[in-house]
From TrEMBL:
Protein name: tripeptidyl-peptidase II
Subcellular locations according to the entry: Secreted, Extracellular space
InterPro entries, per the entry: Peptidase_S8/S53_dom, Peptidase_S8/S53_dom_sf, S53_propep, Sedolisin_dom, Tripeptidyl-peptidase_I
EC number in record: 3.4.14.10
List of catalytic residues: E289 (charge relay system), D293 (charge relay system), S486 (charge relay system)
Biological function: Secreted tripeptidyl-peptidase which degrades proteins at acidic pHs and is involved in virulence.
Length: 568
């Protein structure tokens, strides 16, 4: 009886899944899984895969052209950001693409669901056996050795030849990511004595940068960041959080009590949740990263509203949750002026098609007036996380020209590069026009050093930097000092959010995609960092020098100079 039942089921599956005979053409291929992944064997035929299909967008190059037009200070359309509908006109697929792909799916008994606001992403669920036939491939089980996490992926797949031009990519297929893009923040318990100083509203402690740690008062002193309260409630920062890292409101309250007694210690952030993300408030669940990111936005960008977006793992995102985050935010009519993400990984893990798709989502956010900031990573030239390497490892998504990549510095007399600050050149994106002269003058100073270890025609990163060593935080009733580009990114984000507050108050548009501004009129408003390097791969890495460099970018912010550079 049982045997017959099984037989009937599998026959039915075979009938339903028999692919129509369309000619197939190889679509994406990678030579091998990235190092650190091992092949275990074929995936079980009956395992159901949640696959995502990206449709070819209507006019992606039109989006980029418009993005430059609204983000370049010398352009007559500078600051004329697009609405949700206007952006979606560029990225929505053509109706014939939607029809062609759905007809093919229907012929195979598959129905799709639309999962992005512009309709450019579909989701399907298919057993491995059917997916193998549809895409002429063999889905297999791979293990990410350092974590033991298993995933089903393939080294190549095909799509029907007649769908070229309609179907952009199938995901997750040739993208192999570690389970998380968490950065290796170094945390040291703070054992010094803290003495409460009750300042008046003119005060708040520090401003004299204690040798032992960096706090908001120290950042305010080094970068001339104002302490006066922001006034525009429409201008907010979104802090993204992943990997079950929860931001604890009581830790923030403690932090503000000690570090910003002049602002009410009840000042807090709001929480939004995505993909099953939560913001559990049990002490054990607070994370260094989430507490750091909320304390250095709420505590530095005085009175700028902060949204903590907690992204969970109930998804088939396949790129650390970054795809879902971007599409979730793009689905909103109201957008933050700044998104800060202190997570980063390596470019080689993500297939070039998926990397381009995600980069295009950041371009959409830029076109709508959002500054998208990512940490450059903490592994020097060896990638987001320090690892053994021969060639330098570009981090991700810092290579995407439409994000602003933030590296790290330390000390302040003088300020120098932090040695963990990731920087280098993308293998996926070429040097964009906004930085071509900055990059070529760096390369001519560099000469033959590191020749052959990096891609001299790639997009250089980071773009900017900020302090990143020994940041004082409150966590779970204790104090710690933390180091990493994770400290630098919320700091730079807070500076931009405060500039945006003043711009909005003056009836002007927010800054949006920052890079064309930073490399032109913004250039002289940054403190050029000219010493330190970022070793890795058995080399000294790159050195910070006059002008842009792949360690500290263009340099660190000077709020007063930035105010005049943005016309305030
Ligand atoms: C600080 O001083 C003010 C004014 O004297 C007082 O109202 C406030 O309670 C004090 N704060 C703390 C935490 O002691
Ligand atoms: C989405 O829009 C709503 C309503 O304006 C707002 O409350 C929310 O914070 C927005 N979410 C994000 C992530 O920007
Ligand atoms: C690099 O390789 C050395 C020698 O094989 C090993 O001891 C070390 O742990 C490795 N470092 C990393 C970061 O993997
Ligand atoms: C170097 O970068 C260029 C420009 O993005 C790219 O076309 C090329 O494939 C890259 N080279 C390698 C070896 O990845
Ligand atoms: C947050 O962390 C504190 C310890 O700092 C803990 O006592 C508290 O239960 C946590 N949750 C909330 C809601 O504050």
């Amino acid at each position: 009886m049982i045997r017959t039942g099984l037989l009937l089921v599998s026959l039915a599956t075979l009938v339903a899944s028999k692919p129509t005979s369309r000619a197939l053409q190889l679509h994406e291929v990678r030579a091998s899984a990235p190092s650190g992944f091992s092949l275990d064997g074929p995936a079980s035929p009956s395992t159901v895969l949640d696959l995502r299909l990206a449709l070819v967008q209507n006019d992606p190059s039109g989006l980029i052209e418009t993005l430059y037009d609204v983000s370049t200070p010398s352009s007559p359309h500078y600051g004329e950001f697009l609405s949700k509908t206007e952006v979606e006109k560029f990225v929505a697929p053509k109706p014939e693409s939607v029809t062609a792909v759905n007809e093919w799916l229907n012929e195979n008994g598959i129905t799709s669901r639309t999962i992005s606001p512009a309709g450019d992403w579909l989701s399907i669920s298919v057993p491995v056996e059917q997916a193998n036939a549809l895409f002429d491939t063999q889905f297999s089980v791979f293990t990410h050795l350092p974590s033991g996490a298993q995933s089903i992926r393939t080294l190549s797949y095909s799509i029907p030849s007649d769908l070229k031009g309609h179907l952009d990519l199938v995901h997750p297929t040739t993208t192999f990511t570690p389970p998380s893009a968490k950065l290796p923040i170094q945390a040291v318990p703070y054992t010094g004595v803290k003495e409460f100083k009750n300042f008046t509203s003119a005060g708040d402690p520090a401003g004299d940068c204690p040798d032992t740690y960096v706090d908001p008062g120290c950042l305010e002193a080094i970068y001339n960041i104002p302490r006066t309260a922001a006034t525009q409630s429409s201008n907010y920062i979104t802090v993204t959080g992943y990997d079950d890292e929860y931001a604890n409101q009581s830790d923030l309250e403690t932090f503000l009590y000690w570090e910003r007694p002049c602002i009410p210690s009840s000042t807090t952030f709001t929480v939004e949740e995505l993909d099953g993300g939560i913001n559990d408030q049990t002490p054990a669940d607070a994370g260094y990263e989430a507490d750091l990111d909320t304390q250095y936005t709420v505590g530095v960008a005085t009175n700028v509203p902060v949204v903590f977006l907690s992204v969970g793992e109930d998804d088939s995102d396949g790129v650390f949750g970054f795809l879902d985050t971007a599409n979730y935010i793009l689905g909103n009519d109201t957008l933050p002026s700044v998104i800060t993400t202190s997570y980063s990984s390596n470019e080689e893990y993500v297939s070039i098609n998926v990397a381009n798709n995600l980069c295009n989502a950041y371009a959409q956010l830029g076109a709508r007036g959002v500054s998208v900031l990512f940490s450059s990573g903490d592994g020097g030239v060896s990638g987001a996380v320090s690892e053994n390497c021969t060639d330098f490892v570009p981090s991700f998504p810092s290579g995407c020209p439409y994000v602003t990549s933030v590296g790290a510095t330390q000390s302040y007399t003088p300020e120098t590069a932090a040695s963990f600050s990731s920087g280098g050149f993308s293998n996926y994106w070429g040097t964009p026009s906004f930085q071509s002269s900055a990059v070529s003058s760096y390369l001519s100073q560099l000469g033959s050093t590191n020749s052959g270890l990096y891609n001299a025609s790639g997009r250089g990163f980071p773009d900017v930097s900020a302090q990143g060593v020994d940041f004082f935080i409150s966590l779970n009733g204790n104090f710690y000092t933390l180091s990493g580009t994770s400290c630098s990114t919320p700091t730079f984000a807070s500076v931009i959010a405060l500039l945006n507050d003043q711009l909005v108050a003056a009836g002007k548009p927010t800054l949006g995609w920052l890079n064309p501004f930073l490399y032109s009129t913004g250039l002289s408003a940054l403190n050029d960092i000219t010493s330190g390097d970022n070793p890795g791969c058995n080399t000294n890495g790159f050195s910070a020098t006059t002008g842009w460099d792949p360690v500290t970018g263009l340099g660190t912010p000077d709020f007063t100079s930035l105010q005049s550079a943005v016309g305030l």
